[in-house]
Records
---
Amino acid sequence: MEKDTKSKLLPLVLTFVVIILDQITKMLVVRYIPYYTIGTSYFGDFLRLIHVSNTGVAFSFGATWGETARRFLFSFIPVIVLAIVMVIYFRNKDFNKLQRWSICGIVGGGLGNLIDRFFRAEGVVDFIDIKFYGLFGLERWPTFNVADSAVVVCGILLLLSFIIMTVQDERAKNSDKN
């Protein structure tokens, strides 16, 4: 197998790991924690495992919109976006290793939540509930799941990698001028 192809295919392992972990954890929550209840708490009430669902997107945005609008905006458009991201991913020869792994983690999280949108009538299963101590007016952070975590963590890593790359490029340009 060509080195370039291998460097593009290997990070897809993360995509599948995120999807599998996300779906397994959601399956366990649905099976063992009754809807709208706290299954267990850790560190007092800092971290709770609860069973809720979300028909909207981040912070339940759009949850009260009509079914057609939600399905189109939160299911079909993300499928198109993820397809475009994967086309760019495979065509681009300039992404570094961290960027490739980060993109695959984001795609895994996106697909994990899309599986819920297409196959769970109640919407995306969320279950991680963290105390936020009144920061930004929130006593608790909005409930999330493994897929959401992968998108956020990998998104931050991707952003940092682009910032670092830009700084390195600027330094290289400045040293070439001197």
---
Amino acid sequence: MNSLKTVFLLTLLTMILVGVGGAVAGSTGMLVMLVFSIIMNFVSYWHSDTMVLKAYKAQEVDINTAPELVKIVSGLARKAGLPMPKVYVINEPIPNAFATGRNPEHAAVAVTSGIMQLLSRDEMEGVLAHELSHIKHRDILISTIVATLAGLIATIGNIAQWGAIFGMGRNSDDEGNGGIVGLLVTIIVAPLAATLIQFGVSRSREYMADEEGGRMSGNPLALASALAKIDDYAKRRVMPEASQATAHMFIINPLSASKESLASLFSTHPSTESRIQKLKELAATLKKS
């Protein structure tokens, strides 16, 4: 059901992109945006993992350089029936973690040095199980594609806005011209809809990863405890290297401290409180079974 929802939202997002292209440049614009979306998805598919790891200056580690971390990942990967992902450490005191890679065979898990110092072994297992769940369900690829398409729609909306200000764009007699209504849809409605779709995909995948991570580690309460600790740091400090383009990948939004209360309603992550509550409910369910 969750997979069908994701496919539907991705399709809807592509349709919005094509529609925006049509509003800006007619049938030619629709065709251009369709082709461009395919190219963007292809680039995201093959290069999203290497780009984000380089952006955060992540260093690959092994059993010799980070034995405890690699052992935890290896044990969880075996338990989940996954190939062993590459393991990276980011030299950053603020605790956080993410997974990346186009599929389980080309995946990586990255953690900050801060999270390794902050969490207990059980809590680290919960966090890493959460990230391996993302790998198992290819959430990283899906989130990257969604973010790419949403960003492209927002960019086109900005171009249309500036084009309207300076009198550029389609003439009133152009094919399928929507006039001022079409312009407003392109500038305001389409980017907003794309953003909401991005949030819908991201939040549902986070809840899924929490649940499976709790089941995989066998200790949902340890994951809940880890989320609370990471969130406490995130509310007070922003990761210097973090960006809006990659914030959705982390287990807790690394930009939380920069948000106003109203903006926090429009987050790629569900509230940590609701995630913790669901993990507590899962723990109670597992205890009964």
---
Amino acid sequence: MCEKIDLRVKKTYIALFRSFEKLSKTKDFGDITVNEICDNAMVGKGTFYSHFTDKYDFLSFLINNVFKDYINKAFENASSDNLCEYYKEFFLSFIDILETEKHSFKPAGNSLAMGIALSHIGSVYNKLLEPLQKADSENRKLNSFTAEYLSILLILVLFKFASGENYNSDDVKMSISVLLEKIFA
């Protein structure tokens, strides 16, 4: 969430997020109503509608904030001068975060939610590209391609989580590690 948001507004958002998270554990997004979100959060509907136009706008806001947090945490954990290790740390950390926060990501089974999450790929691409350009400013085309490729890899990981497909996260981590080692060999 933005740092410049009023404390009361932050508390309202947190209450609404927690309410939605609790409801989404037992109900599909389409079955959750604004009344339920507000009642569970002890927030008036007027307050809800002063911040969001409807539950889809709320979901968009929620996913934007959650996804930004996931990405920022993953990049914070990636602290290596070696590009291969840097990207391994990023992806492995991102998978760990998604794994531990699976319940928060449940609404992403909805195509709207997935679209919102994927809308951040551009900023992720830029973050992925930055260390490549620092390491090798001569080869911009290859750097750009590599950042695009890694962004697509991130999209595939997101789709795995959003689809609820059963898979072993350790196998995914191993596959990503091997792939990164081949890319940066």
---
Amino acid sequence: MSNPPVLHIVCFDIPYPADYGGAIDVFYRIKALSESGVKIYLHCTYKGELVHHAPLESLCEQVFYYPRNMHWTGMLHIMPFTVFSRRNDELLRNLQINDAPILFEGLVCCLYMSHPALANRRKFFRECNVEHDYYRGLAIAEHSWWKKLYFYIEAVKLQRFERVLRHANGIFALAHQDKVHFKNAFPQVTTYYVPCFQGNIQVEAIEGKGTYILYHGNLTVAENERAATYLAQCFGKQGKWQMIIAGKNPSERLYRVCQRYTNIRIVANPAESEMEALIRDAQLHVLVTFQATGLKLKLLHVLYSGRHVIVNSEMATGTELKQLCHTVHTEQEMQKQCDKWMERPFTAEEKQYRQYVLKQLFDTQHLSQHIQSIIFKQ
């Protein structure tokens, strides 16, 4: 009987609870790999108080935790702060307890990818974003001038640091346009398209009609607040349909915008069950972004749980999900499509088609087998 395959995974955070895009992708990848027999040594950086999570630790052979150094002086280093704050000699030592391949989850975890001690190891990179593009987008969306400056400086540093990926044996891109970026930037490293891992299996959308439009997201993120503000103004001026904006810690700025319109309502900090009910009962989900980066897992979630979905072109860029959404390019197109789909019930045929497409694209067992065939290739 052959020995089971062994893998080190270096993660940007503790990927549990899996309640945001990056953590969802990592946690369900760990789950799929573990269930297929891979012995995982997980290395997590964290900030704040350390919390152990039994569901995560039960999937791994061993979990190591490393506190981040968040002192502001790290911002003065030539290295990106988000990388420098994860520097830890113990991590480097623990990666050498055996000679198993290493999967680095996100560019911010790649400090030791080029280290001489790991020169003879098989090393793979899973992207979260094209990080310098993502940070530039954060800078544009940010209102605070010092945060804006920080994001711009970090973007420059991250673009320079990205050269560390020359030392990878393979790159797993989560979007088609990201695959093009890495293939062009590192032609000597093979880049593979591997969409995100996630926990949904069955489409649970309810047939029939709802009465409102929903936008949801973490409203502490400047990009999401920008999107929510845009949509509130768009549908508030029209005044025809009831719209709910739901999410974490909406700002006073967003409240002021929404208070101008009688048909716009904010639901702040809904419990998970309340959020799921809002998603389930909405007639239409409108999701926009001004950054064609990131996992956009909330889009995937509403395709499993909600009725009709309208997106702008940036929201579905780089995935095959456009075939399940109604894509718009202008505010006028958005309002026209909303008028159309607010009147049309969600049908059993649409639900069945969604189930078929999503099964083809996001079967975690198939995705797990695919990356194992690459990482453990003899």
